[in-house]
Design a protein that fits this description.
This is UDP-N-acetylglucosamine:LPS N-acetylglucosamine transferase. By secondary structure, this protein is α/β, with parallel strands linked by helices. 42% of the residues lie in helices and 13% in strands. Strands 3-2-1-4-5-6-7 form a 7-stranded parallel beta sheet, with helices on both faces. The chain has a 6-stranded parallel beta sheet with strand order 10-9-8-13-14-15, sandwiched between helices. A two-stranded antiparallel ribbon has the order 11-12.
């Protein structure tokens, strides 16, 4: 029987649909590719990015031609998000869902027209029936595009047995998934991030879904009751798998020499945020710098490693970095930029090793609500979350305190899952206590990590392939 299954699965063609650097990071640069090839799958990366893959990464590639996105689809996807959030607000009597809305722009005539249209459709469709209407409209719009016809022709020519979409939030992949479904090809989607489900970001609708954990499965069924529970598989995420590869970790002497670090110092990592999440992020780095400088003046020997957010293009940290060269070592993520959009930044295999070594060789991480808490807790390193306002906060600037009200932070087992810094005056003491081993969140933080990521995160790549195999068998036999 097992031999029959192996023969049936041999050379099954799987299209891995990627649209951004995060999809490549998870499903090309991790063990995922090797796991599939070792199981004799015929992997084809259905490439909807601006990156050329086949030459650089030794993979089979089917490129999707570049098409300008249908402006109506983009508009109605925004409508869909806003009306879903309105419905959730009423359904669960919880105003937190309104925090997920981005403000509409009225700066130009074009912006004014689009925002007015969005407002009108939002008012007219903020019901369950309205959501269905807008979902149907989006699909109708995408089926009328040249990209849909192009993707349908590709699928007709290549005849994959499965299309695996690497995230659920990319509007430009809607037409490709629809083309597959209209041809009767099974489609599967991976829920990309720990915070995506409550934010009404399920743009891609597929036959099956892969989620990180039981928690995420429960959320998906909670927010999208039309999804059949049997079509949702708990698999973990490849995002954290490289941390379990001990061969990536360099010796302290080697790593410190490579990045001009002082082997006599203890280092604190400051993990930067994107400008939307933390618009005043540079001032938290400045606060950490002042706290470390005070501790050093009292006899400590501490340095700071600043790792920026890979999709942050701003120069807002420059002044703090320039004024504190004696304390801060800047170690940028090893990502490549080919455009100005977050989706046009490509990670590299080398960055897996870099991040793992920063986690391993620093004493703790500090940031504003970042999921790097999980990267560091894998290496048994504590995390301090900033949760106080900066004096530079004014009307029109987003308060970072809003972030901690989001639904995904309700997954914390308790407040002890991170070390909270709720006042600038507390920072110096809390950093000192962590360095002296007197304060840590690692125990509860590890519980939180497993709540969100699942119980066997190191096996995620194999678990995903097990799920895909189950789906192919189910739809083939």
């Amino acid at each position: 029987m097992y031999k029959d299954v192996l023969n049936l699965m041999k050379d099954k063609k799987v299209f891995i649909l990627v649209s951004d650097g995060s999809g490549l990071r998870n499903f090309l640069f991790t063990k995922f590719k090797a796991e599939g090839e070792n199981s004799n799958y015929n992997l084809q990366y259905w490439n909807d990015t601006r990156f050329s893959l086949s030459d650089r990464f030794n993979c089979n590639e089917v490129s999707i031609a570049t098409y300008k996105q249908n402006w109506q689809t983009l508009l109605f996807c925004r409508v869909r998000k806003r009306i879903e959030l309105n419905v959730l607000t009423k359904k669960f009597k919880d105003n937190v869902y309104q925090l997920y809305k981005f403000p509409l722009s009225y700066r130009s005539i074009n912006d004014f027209i689009k925002s007015t249209i969005i407002n009108v459709f939002e008012r007219l469709n903020s019901t369950e029936a309205g959501i269905k209407r807008i979902r149907k409209r989006i699909k109708t719009l995408e089926r009328s595009t040249k990209k849909y016809a192009y993707c349908k022709q590709q699928l007709t020519t290549d005849k994959p047995d499965l299309v695996f979409c690497t995230n659920q939030r990319s509007t430009k992949m809607i037409s490709a998934v629809l083309a597959a479904q209209d041809l009767g090809i099974p489609t599967v989607c991976f829920i990309h991030s720990w915070d995506n489900v409550p934010k009404a970001m399920n743009v891609i609708e597929t036959d099956y879904y892969l989620v990180w954990s039981d928690l995420m499965k429960k959320e998906l069924l909670h927010y999208y009751p039309y999804i059949d529970e049997s079509k949702v598989f708990v698999t973990g995420t490849p995002q954290f798998v490289p941390h379990y590869d001990r061969t990536l970790i360099k010796s302290r002497a080697s790593f410190f020499n490579e990045y001009n670090l002082d082997v006599n110092k203890k280092y604190v990592c400051y993990s930067g945020d994107d400008i939307t999440t933390s618009p005043l992020d540079q001032y938290y780095l400045e606060d950490l710098t002042n706290a470390v400088r005070n501790l050093n003046n009292k006899g400590e020997n501490i340095g700071i490693i600043y790792r920026k957010c890979p999709v942050d293009f701003t120069d807002r940290y420059d002044e703090v970095l320039k004024n504190n060269k004696d304390l801060i070592i800047k170690i940028d993520p090893i990502w490549e930029q080919v455009g100005d959009m977050w989706s046009e930044i490509i990670p590299t295999v080398e960055d897996f090793s870099l991040l793992a070594n920063i986690c391993y060789h620093t004493e703790l991480v500090t940031n504003v609500c970042s999921s790097t808490v999980f990267d560091f807790v894998i290496h048994k390193k504590p995390c301090i979350y900033y949760n106080y306002e900066q004096p530079q906060l004014k009307k029109g600037i987003r308060d970072i305190g809003q972030n901690y009200k989001y639904v995904h932070f309700r997954s914390m087992p308790s407040d002890a899952a991170v070390i909270w810094c709720k006042d600038k005056s507390e920072l110096e003491t809390k950093v000192f206590e962590v360095l002296k081993g007197e304060r840590s969140n690692v125990s509860v933080g590890t519980q939180w990590y497993h709540n969100v990521v699942g119980q066997l995160p190191e096996n995620a790549c194999a678990t995903i392939w097990n799920a895909l195999e189950h789906i192919i068998l189910k739809t083939t036999i």
